[in-house]
């Protein structure tokens, strides 16, 4: 029996029984649509969370070293800095820890007024080493970042974060202009690409980068650092590097055995992996409900097809009489179920994509179209049709044509 | 064309064996017009189902065109029905929500040859219903429905046409039109086997087989 020969008549029968077809499709459609929405929104929530963490942490293959004991848990505290981490520590880590390729330095302040002509603000001032950009994965939008030479020569150059640029230079090209940080004049050399929101939702762009050496000697008059970022040669070596750095710094800081560290070490890669696995229980529960709804869609197809088999006994008898084998009847009913289920699935995908767009807009999430989800949903709807269509189709094929025609 | 030799059919009803046909034997020559008569429950429908390869005999042999079809499997019997046999029913049995032309095309789906609408159009023309092509069964009179059914039975060009009380649900005029078509088909050389209660219908037959209690009682041949 050629399946293609059955195709057109089956489609015709389905379109002529529109009410029944719509009813049979509805369950699958609702199930698939909710699955689509839930999986897409779940995935874009996860990606958005990841993105915000990445915005904050920069690249992952690093170890972050902060002053203060690890009892000060939580987000990076940039405001209340213990003076335990020194420039020499950065040099020692870079030269003595074999797992580390390079180290970036940060020294910062939050309470310094910045002025350009009559405009002013208090963006964060980040004194950083010239390799900061590379280790953070940030990019310059306009102009350029400062170099190692700038750091050595204590250049007074500044790179503006996107928000700082908007505040100080709303309608002027800032490159080459002189701003005053505190009382010290700096020449603007570049503007950063916006990093967007951090995990807490706040902007990460209201800041100005200057060379860490200039910050230390000309602005803050401080010899301790807020943070070091040590880049791993091999991302898998995070824990080994942390152990070595800990040993090194404890020695350098003369910390007695049993005493607490005066610094703490984190591996963003490990943090990210943890964030990544945090799926909300509610989301998982909803997915289970949606799968159940889709299954109920399959059961609707099965029961309506079963009713159809007994209603359509005469039709089955006639088809058998004019030459249909049992297999041909089985194929016909199976094809009906699969086509309906698949059509229901496609409708569900369309509604799902539309629904995802609406939910994404309401939740301020990026709209995400997952080809894999669309593929899986189509496949699922076909499998449902096969699974729940095979029993009624078998029943139909076993209908005795003589009985069926008698009556 | 048909050689029936000592065919019996027994089936079980409520666990008890019931014999519907008992050692029935007869031949039907190609191009014959045969009427099977008998009261309800006499076994004539069972005989027709056997002739139509919808059923297999319990014992005995059935040769159709020289080939033994007594013990074929479902696929083989379906293939024979598709190629050699056309069915006409008392209650027409057109498919609901299906147009006249689509009903006529139905057997082509299950045949070997390509689905060819022009053949269906010609078959409808042949029964005088080309103007009803797009009408649904429910929009046709009884006589028209039966003529569509005849067109359907003809579409794969069968040598044998089996009609079970084809005029039983029709008024006199429509019945006459149907019988006229059946005689024309017979005139073309097709073998017609017809089950009927109607004396007027039986009167036209060349042969009459009378079945009573599952036994062939009488085989009357007329000029």
Topology, pairings included?
The complex is a heterodimer of chains A (407) and B (223).
Chain A: H1 3-16, H2 18-57, E1 62-67, H3 87-96, E2 100-109, E3 114-116, E4 119-121, E5 124-128, H4 132-136, E6 140-143, H5 148-152, E7 157-160, H6 162-168, E8 178-181, E9 184-192, E10 207-211, H7 212-220, E11 227-232, H8 238-252, E12 263-266, H9 268-277, H10 281-311, H11 313-321, H12 326-363, H13 371-397, H14 401-406
Parallel strand pairs in A: 5-10, 7-9
Antiparallel strand pairs in A: 1-11, 1-12, 2-5, 2-11, 3-4, 3-8, 6-9, 7-10, 8-9
Helix pairs in contact in A: 1-12, 2-9, 2-10, 2-12, 2-13, 3-8, 10-12, 10-13, 12-13
Chain B: E1 2-13, E2 16-28, E3 33-37, H1 44-51, E4 59-64, E5 67-68, H2 74-84, E6 85-88, H3 100-109, H4 117-126, H5 142-154, E7 160-164, H6 172-187, E8 191-195, H7 199-203, E9 207-212, E10 215-221
Parallel strand pairs in B: 3-8, 3-9, 6-7, 7-8
Antiparallel strand pairs in B: 1-2, 1-4, 4-5, 9-10
Structure characterization notes:
The complex is a heterodimer of chains A (407) and B (223). With 407 residues, chain A is of the alpha+beta class. Chain A folds into two domains: 180 residues, no CATH class; 193 residues, no CATH class. Chain A is 56% helix and 15% strand. In chain A, strands 1, 2, 3, 4, 5, 6, 7, 8, 9, 10, 11 and 12 form a twelve-stranded mixed β-sheet that branches. In chain A, a hairpin with a 2-residue loop joins strand 8 and strand 9. In chain A, helix 2 packs antiparallel against helix 9 and helix 2 runs antiparallel to helix 13. Chain A is elongated and about 105 Å long. The relative contact order of chain A is 0.19. Chain B has 223 residues and is of the alpha/beta class. Chain B has one domain: Rossmann fold, CATH 3.40.50.300. In chain B, the strands form two sheets. In chain B, strands 6-7-8-3-9-10 form a six-stranded mixed β-sheet, sandwiched between helices. A four-stranded antiparallel β-sheet of chain B has the order 2-1-4-5, covered by helices on one side. In chain B, strand 7, helix 6 and strand 8 form a beta-alpha-beta unit. In chain B, helix 3 runs parallel beside helix 5, helix 4 crosses helix 5 and helix 5 packs parallel to helix 6. Chain B is globular, with a radius of gyration of 17 Å. The mean pLDDT of chain B is 92. The chains are: A alpha+beta (407), B alpha/beta (223). At the A-B interface, helix 1, helix 11, helix 12 and helix 14 of A face helix 2 and helix 3 of B.
């Amino acid at each position: 029996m050629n399946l293609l020969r059955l195709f057109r008549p089956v489609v015709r029968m389905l379109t002529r029984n529109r009410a029944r077809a719509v009813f049979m499709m509805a369950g699958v459609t609702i199930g698939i649509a909710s699955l689509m929405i839930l999986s897409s929104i779940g995935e874009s929530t996860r990606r958005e969370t990841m993105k915000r963490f990445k915005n904050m942490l920069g690249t992952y293959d690093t170890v972050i070293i902060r002053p203060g004991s690890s009892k000060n848990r939580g987000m990076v505290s940039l405001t209340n800095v213990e003076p335990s981490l020194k420039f020499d520590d950065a040099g020692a880590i870079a030269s003595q820890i074999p797992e580390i390729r390079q180290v970036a330095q940060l020294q910062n302040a939050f309470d310094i007024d910045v002025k350009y002509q009559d405009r002013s603000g208090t963006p964060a001032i980040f004194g950083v080493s010239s390799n900061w950009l590379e280790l953070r994965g940030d990019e310059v939008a306009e102009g350029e970042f400062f170099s190692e030479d700038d750091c050595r020569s204590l250049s007074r150059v500044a790179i503006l974060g996107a928000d700082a640029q908007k505040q100080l230079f709303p309608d002027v090209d800032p490159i080459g202009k002189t701003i005053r940080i505190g009382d010290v004049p700096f020449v603007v050399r570049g503007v950063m690409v916006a990093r967007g929101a951090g995990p807490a939702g706040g902007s990460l762009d209201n800041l100005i980068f200057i060379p860490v050496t200039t910050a230390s000697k000309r602005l803050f008059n401080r010899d301790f650092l807020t943070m070091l970022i040590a880049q791993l040669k091999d991302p898998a070596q995070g824990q080994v590097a942390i152990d070595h750095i800990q040993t090194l710094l404890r020695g350098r800081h003369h910390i007695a055995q049993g005493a607490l560290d005066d610094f703490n070490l984190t591996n963003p890669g490990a943090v990210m992996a943890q964030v990544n696995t945090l799926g909300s229980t509610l989301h998982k529960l909803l997915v289970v409900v949606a799968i159940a709804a889709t299954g109920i869609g399959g059961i609707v197809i099965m029961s309506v097809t079963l009713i159809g088999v007994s209603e359509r006994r005469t039709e089955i008898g006639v088809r058998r009489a004019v030459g249909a084998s049992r297999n041909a009847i089985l194929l016909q009913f199976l094809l009906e179920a699969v086509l309906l289920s698949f059509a229901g699935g496609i409708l569900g995908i369309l509604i799902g994509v539309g629904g995802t767009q609406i939910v994404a807009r309401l939740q301020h999430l990026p709209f995400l179209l997952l080809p894999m989800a669309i593929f899986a949903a189509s496949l699922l709807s076909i499998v449902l049709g096969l699974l729940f269509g095979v029993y009624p189709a078998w029943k139909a094929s076993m209908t005795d044509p003589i009985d069926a025609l008698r009556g | 064309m048909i050689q029936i030799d000592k065919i019996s059919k027994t089936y079980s009803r409520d666990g008890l064996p019931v014999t519907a046909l008992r050692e029935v034997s007869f031949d039907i020559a190609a191009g014959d017009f045969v009427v099977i008569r008998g009261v309800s429950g006499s076994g004539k429908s069972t005989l027709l189902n056997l002739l139509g390869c919808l059923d297999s005999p319990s014992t005995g042999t059935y040769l159709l065109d020289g080939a033994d079809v007594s013990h074929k499997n479902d696929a083989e019997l379906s293939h024979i029905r598709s190629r050699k046999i056309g069915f006409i029913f008392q209650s027409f049995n057109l498919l609901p929500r299906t147009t006249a032309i689509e009903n006529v095309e139905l057997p082509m789906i299950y045949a070997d040859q390509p689905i060819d609408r022009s053949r269906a159009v010609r078959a409808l023309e042949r029964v005088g219903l080309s103007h009803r092509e797009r009408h649904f069964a429910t929009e046709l009179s009884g006589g028209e429905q039966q003529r569509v059914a005849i067109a359907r039975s003809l579409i794969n060009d069968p040598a044998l046409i089996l009609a079970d009380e084809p005029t039983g649900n029709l008024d006199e005029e429509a019945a006459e039109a149907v019988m006229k078509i059946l005689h024309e088909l017979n005139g073309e050389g097709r073998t017609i086997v017809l089950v009927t209660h109607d004396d007027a219908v039986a009167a036209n037959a060349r042969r009459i087989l009378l079945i009573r209690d599952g036994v062939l009682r009488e085989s009357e041949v007329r000029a």
